[in-house]
Amino acid sequence: MCGIFGYIGYQDAAKMVAIGLKRLEYRGYDSWGIAVISEKLKVKSKKLFVEKQVGSIGDTKTFNSKLLTLNSSIGIGHTRWATHGGVTKTNAHPHFSTDKSFALAQNGIVENYTELKSSLSKKGYKFETETDTEVIVRLIEDKQSLRSKDLKQKLASHLSSGNVNLKEAVRLAFLELEGRNTIILISNDGQVIACRNGSPLIIGKNFKTGEIYLSSDTLSFAPFANKMLIIENGQLVQIIDKNITISDLSSGKVIKNKFEDIGFEAEEVEREGFPHFMVKEIYESPYVIEQLVSKDRKTFENFAKIINECANVYTIGSGTIGVAAAQIAFYLRLYGKKKVISLIGADSVEYLPLFKKGDLIIAPSQSGETADVLEVLEKAKQKGVKIASIVNMPGSSMTRLSDYKFMMQAGPEICVMSTKAYIFPIAWGYLISKTVQGKYDEGIKNLITLADEMDNWLKQNKNHKDIKFLAKKLATKKDIFLLGKYQNFQIIREGMVKLIEGTYKHAHALPSGDLKHYVITLIEKGVPVIVAISEDIVKQDLLNSVHEVKARGADIIAIAPKNHSDYNTFIQVPDCGQVSAIMNVIPLQLLAYYMAVELGNNVDKPRNIAKSVTVK
Ligand code: G6P
After folding, report:
1. Buried b vs exposed e over 396-433: b needs ≥16 C-beta within 10 Å?
2. For 312-323, how does the pLDDT look when each residue is reduced to its tens digit (9 = 90+)?
3. Could you tell me which InterPro entries the record lists for this protein (predicted)?
4. Do 178 and 287 fall within a single domain?
């Protein structure tokens, strides 16, 4: 993760980079840093200044930094999600070179950083931080100064004056990095250089004003630029005096490129009177379902044929979206009658040799940049597997590598805890499964009713009052258990994810029937057990599990259409038939929300997590 941003133009670069970083904060908010070149000081060579701080960049309207006094027009910045090294000012990016001639920021992980660091240390390089990023800086310095004899020989042909130029040094250093990395650097002679291998990098340009932006995503600069150029893996960008040159990293050869229209408006997203983005986004779920049902029927019918023709079908995702991927697989098994396997992005290794031509992988993703998933998709694609993606972020890596591309149209999701971007793919999964079953119309009808019921439920104050009351009670508990089965199993898993993210408490979701095999040892008087029960074929099984934990003193909280004498707390939801499970997500999300508020946690930016995870 981490977000990187660059600006070259006529406005104050520090301010523009701060605005960009604010829009990228969903990628990490442990610390931020900005480097600019000051043209204020009338010195021969321009000077490079860096400011770094721990924490998020805060409100850009009141952004106050000494960098703002420097009249800079070129700058880069970084918003960090710490991987190597603690959350400190020293470890924050950008990192200066020893002679302060350039500063560099990175998004990724240098997987061979231990080896590189030890070889650079042997050559006498000093390290001030615990980051893998500083290794890249020193490696570039090494390439520049040609301390390595081997390199001197190799580069004899490149040399004009005994020193390798910065671009060439960056290129050579970058080629030695293992892992998924993207870097950006600014030098005191006014150059901005960036390289991509894995983590996203996009250039934006305003063709009227000539301003240039570099960023980890398009949304961050979309309000200011009208064209974009997506940098591919294995490419290097050099910008000097507003001239952009793209070259191939391995050969160094210049590549021709064409800017394309950004193709969407990125307005400033406001909370619109809601205290937090999370609750606003929960309220938007019915609208998200309406967006889905208004999509072209043909798209679903065509894709249903593809699913039917494929040998093996997999779904994949990480975190919340991994849970959504599992629910899509559930619906495809239940209604599509396809043997579909769901995978977790970071835990798919044993499947890699099994993928083969004729298979299909369905990947939902809010960002379309999740490294754990992208890596599996890239490997599967090489083996001839077809990829389908359902992505919320326009222009993402996942969309571009997909054979079948679906856009979520959930609108920007700002809260790091994902809510409406979980609802869209599971509703999509239900609809595509109904289409495979030959019952598209029934699927649409059920989803339209669901959107209405959900909207209605969200508008009733009593529901919020009840959940707030429950949140207050659960905020004092240490552990929370969640039970579900069949259509509700992945739903309570998502409830668990939201509770963990929002409350920093231990939550544990499990298939209700498995409870008696081990977890029941943990149930004692007063332990909260949340259960999602629908009016379906497994209702009685779930009630049996409820009896079993109730007998051991558990405090039962049921999300269900009908009350039962075993429930201590009853959160009533409408009976939405085949899509009941999707309805049940809403009270669980709201419970996590109200608990986070009750506990005084940072609701929209929970500690230690990020919205887009572009590292493995
Ligand atoms: C992070 C986020 C989750 C998200 C997951 C996958 O862990 O905190 O909310 O579900 O990444 O992200 P994606 O962009 O692929 O949906």
Report:
1. bbbbebbebbbbbebbbbbbbbbbbbbbbbbbbbbbbb
2. 999 999 999 999
3. GATase_2_dom, GFAT, GFAT_N, GlmS/AgaS_SIS, GlmS/FrlB_SIS, Ntn_hydrolases_N, SIS_dom, SIS_dom_sf
4. no
For atom 6 of ligand 1, the residue with the nearest CA is 318
Element spanning 18, H or E: helix 13-23
Given the residues 477, 562, 611, 616, the one annotated as active site? 611
pLDDT tens digit string along 261-277? 987 766 677 888 999 99
70 lies in some domain: yes
Structure tokens at 32: 């931020």
Q: Label each residue of 235-264 as H, E or C.
A: EEEEEECCEEEEEECCCCCEECCCCEECCC
DSSP string for 320-371? HHHHHHHHHHHHHHHTT---EEEEEGGG-GGGTTT--TT-EEEEEESSS--H
Q: What are residue 227's DSSP bridge partners?
A: 205, 261
We report the CATH number of the domain holding residue 77 as 3.60.20.10
Give the pocket of ligand 1 (CB within 6 Å).
318-321, 365-367, 370, 373, 416, 418, 609, 611-613
Boundaries of domain holding 610: 461-616
pLDDT digits (tens, 9 = 90+) for 20-64: 999 999 999 999 999 999 876 655 556 899 999 999 988 777 888
Probe residue for ligand 1, chosen from 365, 428, 493, 500 as the CB with the greatest number of ligand atoms within 8 Å = 365
* Angle at alpha carbon of residue 486, lines to 485 and 489, rounded to 5°: 50
User: What was the pLDDT predicted at 42?
Assistant: 54
Residues 282 and 191 in one domain: no
Question: Best mutation site among 316, 328, 366 for ligand 1, i.e. most ligand atoms within 8 A of its Cβ?
Answer: 366
Name the domain boundary from 242, 261, 280. Answer: 261
Residue 173 main-chain phi, psi, to 5 deg: -65, -45
Within a domain: 23: yes
Hey, what's the torsion of the CAs at 185, 187, 192, 194, to 10 degrees? Answer: -30
Distance of CA 133 to the CA centre of its chain: 21
- Tell me, yes or no, if 611 is annotated catalytic: yes
Last residue in a domain, options 411, 429, 459: 459
User: Is 195 one of the catalytic residues?
Assistant: no
Same domain, 446 and 477: no
351 and 438 belong to one structural domain: yes
Which are the contacts of 163, defined by CB distance < 8 A and separation ≥ 6?
A: 144, 145, 146
- The answer to whether residue 378 is domain-embedded is yes
- Does residue 157 carry a pLDDT above 50? no
Same domain, 455 and 513: no
